[in-house]
Amino acid sequence: MTDIPELTAEQFKRAMPSSVRRRLMAGRIESGADVTALRQFIGLTQERFAAAMGISVHTLRNWEQGRRHPDGPAIALLRIAARHPRVILENLRSAA
Length: 96
Fold this sequence. Notes:
Elements: H1 9-14, H2 18-25, H3 32-42, H4 46-53, H5 57-64, H6 73-83, H7 85-95
Helix pairs in contact: 2-6, 3-5, 4-5, 4-7, 6-7
């Protein structure tokens, strides 16, 4: 039997419930807290997440604070981020 390593404190802090992740992968974003949870799950600041997504920090903050809601292509990008977080990190690295 293989030992499963325990989560580090940093990994635990970034974790999100699987039910929330499944909902985000389906494109059902219920609140700004969902966008914040996704960003934190990937482990990026607002500035770096916005850069990786190709949006302004102002737009991201509006989503996270519930003043605006992502739609259309933005939801598609958030779905990809939820399903394949490494793609977002790779996009950030390639943009640098």
